[in-house]
Specification:
The structure is a single chain. By secondary structure, the chain is of the alpha+beta class. It has one domain: Immunoglobulin-like (Sandwich), CATH 2.60.40. About 15% of the residues lie in helices and about 40% in strands. It has two helices and nine strands. The strands form two sheets. It has a five-stranded mixed beta sheet. Strand 7 and strand 8 form a beta hairpin. The termini are far apart.
């Protein structure tokens, strides 16, 4: 009987292993350092939790001005310093979406990525949110380092 319980416990633990790859695994949220250049903008980009289907297993690539900034798992976030002004923000997953957003100098901006599912189809939304909402939602997320840097305006 003890062997059977141990066997079931091991099978259960093994079945949980794939779930660990569904979400970001870096350190919990910490404030980014201030920008080095006076007037630069701090932008946090984060992906909300997703607990369904294969879409949660995918890293979603994010670009600013055609520079691949990061690929985020569910509950992941990254940050970047960019010059103020208009920048093209792109998501290249399922279909490519681009938006031009104005980033004000000496401010912190938050961009929120949400993945949705209906049946076997996935969709997503990507939008700026207020500092109050962004700073509250991002607190439990895990850091995923930026892959590139955005040095100039388009």
């Amino acid at each position: 009987m003890t062997f059977r319980i141990l066997f079931i416990a091991i099978i259960f633990m093994i079945s949980l292993i794939p779930l660990t790859s569904c979400t970001a695994t870096g350190p919990k949220f910490a404030l980014a350092p201030p920008p080095r250049n006076v007037g630069d903008v701090l932008v946090y980009i984060y992906r909300t939790p997703q607990r369904f289907g294969g879409g949660s297993l995918n890293r979603i690539p994010i670009f600013i001005d055609d520079v691949k900034l990061a690929s985020l798992y569910s509950e992941g976030y990254t940050w970047v310093h960019i010059p103020p002004g208009k920048h093209i923000v792109s998501i290249k997953w399922i279909s490519e979406r681009n938006a031009v957003w104005e980033f004000s100098p000496n401010r912190t901006h938050y961009l929120k990525l949400t993945v949705t599912a209906e049946g076997n189809s996935y969709g997503y939304s990507f939008e700026p949110v207020s500092a109050d909402i962004g700073s509250s939602e991002i607190r439990e997320y895990r850091y995923e380092p930026a892959l590139g840097s955005v040095n100039a305006k388009p």
